[in-house]
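Try this one yourself first.
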């Protein structure tokens, strides 16, 4: 029979292992599904939209494709030809924003980016939109939307969370 101290150490080692494994399990569950739904049938990159993202190196992919919904707070036309939809997410998706989305300039909204909507006025962005015609509808402020696309962090902009580029958008 083992001394009392050895049994206590053995129990602590086993307890630590169980706790670690449990932590990894829950981390993996949260990481795989950050509050958004995904469906392989609707999560495809039509017309290779991703190949037309301006400076794609800045986007850290969190999830290759998600679907979320919310109400458009503001529509912003950018110099790179893209349109940013500042979107107040429905409660079911509210955990998709992070500290980078708080305060100026997003005010808690998720950035939803429709690329190459307009001709870029920013010279270094022109090549990204060449040979691509946007087919994604642009909603107005106040409209409810459902969007699908990659869930990313923009490392050039406070690591705010975005869906960029939008693969599909449904108004209503």
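Now uncover the answer:
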């Amino acid at each position: 029979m083992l001394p009392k101290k050895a049994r206590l150490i053995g129990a602590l080692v086993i307890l630590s292992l169980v706790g670690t494994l449990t932590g990894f399990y829950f981390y993996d569950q949260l990481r795989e599904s950050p509050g958004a739904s995904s469906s392989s049938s609707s999560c495809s990159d039509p017309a290779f939209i991703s190949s037309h993202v301006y400076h794609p190196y800045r986007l850290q992919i969190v999830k290759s494709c998600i679907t979320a919904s919310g109400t458009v707070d503001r529509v912003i036309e950018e110099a790179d030809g893209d349109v940013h939809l500042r979107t107040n997410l429905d409660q079911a998706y509210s955990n998709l924003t992070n500290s980078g989305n708080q305060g100026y300039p997003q005010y808690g909204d998720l950035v939803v980016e429709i690329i190459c909507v307009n001709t870029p006025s920013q010279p270094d962005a022109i090549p990204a939109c060449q040979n691509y015609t946007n087919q994604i509808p642009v909603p107005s402020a106040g409209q409810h939307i459902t969007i699908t696309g990659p869930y990313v962090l923009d490392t050039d902009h406070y690591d705010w969370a975005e869906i960029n580029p939008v693969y599909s958008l449904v108004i209503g």
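Discussion: The radius of gyration is 21 Å. Residues 4-32 form the longest helix (29 residues).
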